[in-house]
Design goal:
The chain is mainly alpha-helical. About 80% of the residues lie in helices and about 0% in strands. The chain has three helices and no strands. The chain has helices at about 5-20, 35-50, 65-200. The chain starts with 5 loop residues before the first helix and ends with a helix. The model has no long low-confidence stretch (mean pLDDT about 80). Belongs to the ATPase B chain family.
């Protein structure tokens, strides 16, 4: 077995000093063997009648290890906070800020899109009303132009019909005049031939 360093002896001494007599076995006085046997039997009897002691290392074991556990816990907490939790919370905060900024921009864009949709709907409604009015005006103007052209065509046709009738009447009258002498001659010839046939 190797030699222990003076530092180990110093640590053991310090522990013994801090903990008091918990780790140091009290000195046993030299007694007679009978007395020792009697004390041993009494101690055994007393131990047998006592309730079972709580086991060390339970949930609430307040011993020398409690400060070391608390110190290691606090050290681990500070180290983890410095190395892990602090950067993670910064990243989460930056992410939340970016998400909030994106959400606000999206909300603004949706509001602008709604305004543009309302404006476009109003413009489309106005354009439809204007186109409908222009179509009605154009239809009315076209109907009036068609009616005017129809009236002009009717009056022209009636004038042509009157002129044609007048021309036919004039031709008929002229032919009647021209054929009167022929009719008279034929009438006279007919009368003569009829009288001749009868023998008069």
């Amino acid at each position: 077995m190797g030699r222990r360093s003076p530092l180990a002896y110093f640590g053991l001494g310090l522990m013994a000093l801090l903990c008091g007599s918990a780790f140091v076995m009290p000195a046993v006085p030299k007694a007679a063997p009978e007395k020792t046997q009697l004390l041993t039997a009494g101690a055994g009897l007393m131990l047998a009648t006592l309730p079972a002691p709580a086991y060390a290392g339970g949930m609430f074991d307040f011993g020398l290890t409690l400060p070391f556990v608390a110190l290691s816990f606090l050290t681990m907490m500070f180290v983890l906070n410095a190395l892990w939790y602090s950067p993670m919370t910064e990243e989460v905060d930056e992410r939340n800020a970016k998400l909030l900024q994106t959400l606000s921009e999206a909300t603004d864009m949706l509001a602008k899109a709604d305004e543009m949709q309302v404006q476009y709907t109003a413009d489309i409604k106005e354009a439809r009303e204007k186109a409908s009015k222009e179509l009605a005006d154009a239809r009315k103007a076209t109907e009036e132009a068609i009616a005017t052209e129809a009236r002009a065509a009717d009056s022209k046709r009636e004038a042509e019909a009157r002129d044609f009738k007048a021309k036919l009447d004039a031709e008929f009258a002229e032919k009647v005049k021209g054929s009167e002498s022929t009719i008279k001659e034929r009438q006279q010839d007919f009368v003569k031939s009829s009288l001749a046939a009868v023998g008069l």
